[in-house]
Design a protein that fits this description.
Elements: H1 6-16, H2 23-34, H3 38-55, E1 66-69, H4 71-78, H5 92-99, E2 103-106, E3 114-119, E4 122-133, E5 138-142, E6 148-155, E7 160-167, E8 169-173, E9 179-185
Parallel strand pairs: 1-2
Antiparallel strand pairs: 1-4, 3-4, 4-9, 5-8, 6-7
Helix pairs in contact: 1-2
């Protein structure tokens, strides 16, 4: 049974899909987000767009990078308006051009991603907003000299053989300064 409009129901269902968030919490969060002052949302989105655009001068990756970000920040950036209430970015293509990336990928798991950094015995927590990287600068390989393990077993319940192939993968950035992480200090 739908209690709210389509957009609110979609927001509630997306929030409820997050780990540790039930239906009631998702409803509370949705209404909190809807009732946030537009100035606060605009300030955050403006600040992130400016920081990402200016940080590109420090980027040393190969080719056009891809921006991975939380869907909520992505939509906030697309809905930034000027003083005449006109949207600044009509499409993802315009936003990508300003941010100097080839594409933007929504990563729902980044909604609650927190990292900690300890400097001189003081630990600070940060909310990760986005990660910019050219996947051309990321190499993927296997550990243990490329070991691939295979398993086979006869399943008596289904009267057939079952096969499993397991390969452990790892990856690493291969160039200095080829990835950027955008974060904000946790309040």
């Amino acid at each position: 049974m739908e209690l709210y409009s389509g957009y609110v129901n979609r927001l509630v269902s997306e929030l409820a899909a997050l780990p540790g968030i039930g239906d009631k919490s998702a409803q509370r969060l949705a209404f909190h987000m809807i009732n946030m002052p537009p100035e606060k949302v605009k300030r955050l989105a403006d600040t992130m767009i400016e920081a990402m655009s200016k940080a590109h001068r420090d980027y040393r990756g190969s080719g056009a990078p891809v921006l991975f970000m939380a869907p909520s920040l992505h939509s906030d950036m697309l809905w930034v308006r000027d003083t005449n209430k006109h949207r600044l970015y009509a499409s993802d293509a315009e936003l990508c051009s300003v941010l100097r990336v080839s594409s933007i990928v929504d990563v729902p798991l980044m909604e609650d991603l927190v990292v900690s950094e300890t400097v001189d015995g003081t630990t600070t927590q940060y909310d990760v907003q986005a990660i910019k990287v050219a996947l051309k600068d990321y190499s993927i390989g296997t550990d243990k000299g490329g070991e691939i393990t295979t398993f086979d077993d006869f399943d008596i319940d289904y009267n057939q053989y079952k096969y499993l192939i397991e390969g452990r993968m790892s990856g690493a950035l291969t160039k200095w300064h080829c990835a950027q992480v955008f974060r904000t200090a946790k309040a």
